[in-house]
From TrEMBL:
Protein name, per record: Citrate synthase
Annotated keywords: Acyltransferase, Transferase, Tricarboxylic acid cycle
Coiled coil residues, start to end: none
Top-level taxonomic group: Bacteria
């Protein structure tokens, strides 16, 4: 982070010099940390559209170019050449592992895939028809009650164990939430399987018959995990950091991240997008829905379109679109009506003045639901799959924050526009 440049703020006849910090990549950042102390004013930025909340070495997005890097490596290269657990190592420790380091990491994650047996009973307190995200928020939060030997955030060894436990157990919990909703028995993890195959096994196998995981489907699942693994300071990651800044334990922080991710403007968009594509149903109805998306009086938005940071193609959407074609081919699904609607909707929207002028492009969620549905997942499992993929990103960001000596509790300020001071009136005088 290079310093040297300054910005000058002129306020009520006085000048204030503010340091300008230069990142490795991306726009310069004006350092306003001393502004309130020196000038007695706050800055105002609802939605954090112009505010860097931290410095980070993990993920970089260039929204104008449509680029995403994990630790400097472009997402397209990682999606094509790497695999999820290697990417987890990269995000957590900063470098690609050598063969010994990878084997050791995979062994550590694999050895932690089972959950405490008592957790099976904990699940039974939920209604069968609960959304799996509701169950996940509860069960992941409850991990601090089951694994309280790894919640001392000041102990680096405990932080490490908690990280491995989360990466290993969240897929087991997501699969259990799914099985519970079906009324089927929980399926224990199988440690000879790779991470993605094990997740498919826990979701789709039953004790009554053997289940064979198709390696091509497992590869597609792994790529979905990789594409969702981190995305710098988005809403759920910022939630994890803010929760963690108070010293809350990592399981509580990740549960907070899952709760935030559930919203339809964030991780819940993949479910909402597939439901929208199904509702559109046929290519002929696309203009009707595009008109609704453009109508200021209609709250309808084109789900899977638009992004706070990407003002160009979301690079993850490009990989996802190719994957959708591959997976449907593999499964022998030809002329899938939802995929046809999606492709035509994308084509028309990308030529439409409204979407072009607002730089609205498909995001990662536009095609992911089509792949997940073809694999056999119900829409309610789409966001849990996003959550399990993102767990490594959340935990990497949380670890980075805790290890930073400058870390302090997050406490945004406000522009108060409520009533001025007034005196209480007793009930009989109102
Ligand atoms: N359909 C129609 N219009 C849209 C859409 C959309 N999907 N997205 C943005 N717009 C319009 C807005 O109405 C607004 O128009 P205006 O300037 O005339 O008022 C303009 O584009 C800018 O939109 P904002 O909401 O201000 O942009 P913001 O950066 O706050 O929102 C967001 C980004 C939430 C992702 C938004 O594009 C959206 O709601 N998209 C649909 C939901 C979605 O796909 N979410 C997934 C995001 S990716 C992820 O979390 C994995």
């Amino acid at each position: 982070m290079a310093e040297g440049k300054t910005a000058r703020l002129h306020l009520e006849g006085k000048d204030y010099d503010l340091a300008v910090l230069s990142p490795t990549a991306g726009p310069d950042v004006v350092d306003i940390r001393k502004l309130y102390g020196d000038a007695g004013v706050f800055t105002y930025d609802p939605g954090f559209t112009s505010t860097a909340s931290c410095d980070s070495t993990i993920t970089y997005i260039d929204g104008d170019k449509g680029e995403l890097w994990y630790r400097g490596y472009p997402i397209e290269q990682l999606a094509a050449q790497s695999h999820y657990l290697e990417v987890c190592y990269l995000l957590l420790y900063g470098e690609l592992p050598n063969p010994d380091q990878l084997l050791d990491f995979e062994t550590r994650v694999t050895r932690h895939t089972m959950v405490h047996e008592q957790m099976h009973y904990f699940f039974r307190g939920f209604r069968r028809d609960s959304h799996p995200m509701a169950t996940m928020v509860g069960v992941v939060g409850a991990m601090s009650a089951f694994y309280h030997d790894s919640i001392d955030i000041n102990d680096p060894v405990q932080r490490e164990i908690a990280s491995i436990r989360l990466i290993a157990k969240v897929p087991t919990i997501a699969a259990m939430a799914y099985k519970y909703s079906l009324g089927q028995p929980f399926v224990y993890p199988r440690n000879e399987l790779d991470y993605a195959s094990n997740f498919l096994h826990m979701c789709f196998s039953v004790p009554a018959e053997p289940y064979h995981v198709d390696p091509a489907l497992s590869r597609a699942m792994d790529r979905i995990f990789t594409l969702h693994a981190d995305h710098e300071q988005n809403a759920s990651t910022s939630t994890v950091r803010l929760a963690g800044s108070s010293g809350a334990n990592p399981f509580a922080c990740i549960a907070a991240g899952i709760a935030c991710l559930w919203g339809p403007a964030h991780g819940g968009a993949n479910q909402a997008c597939l439901e929208m594509l199904r509702e559109i149903g046929s290519v002929e109805r696309i203009p009707e829905f595009l008109a609704r998306a453009k109508d200021k009086n209609d709250p309808f938005r084109l789900m899977g379109f638009g992004h706070r940071v990407y003002k160009n193609f979301d690079p993850r959407a490009k990989v996802m679109k190719e994957s959708a074609d591959e997976v449907l081919d593999l499964l022998g699904v030809h002329n899938n009506p939802t995929l046809q609607v999606a492709k035509e909707l994308e084509r028309i929207a990308l030529e439409d003045e409204y979407f072009v002028s607002k730089k609205l492009y498909p995001n990662v969620d536009f095609y992911s639901g089509i792949i997940l549905e073809a694999m056999g997942f119900p829409t309610s499992m789409f966001t849990p799959i996003f959550a399990l993929s993102r767990t490594v990103g959340w935990i990497s960001q949380w670890k980075e924050m805790i290890a930073d000596p400058q870390n302090k509790i997050g406490r945004p300020r406000q522009l108060y526009v409520g009533a001025p001071r007034r005196d209480y009136k007793p009930l009989d005088q109102r």
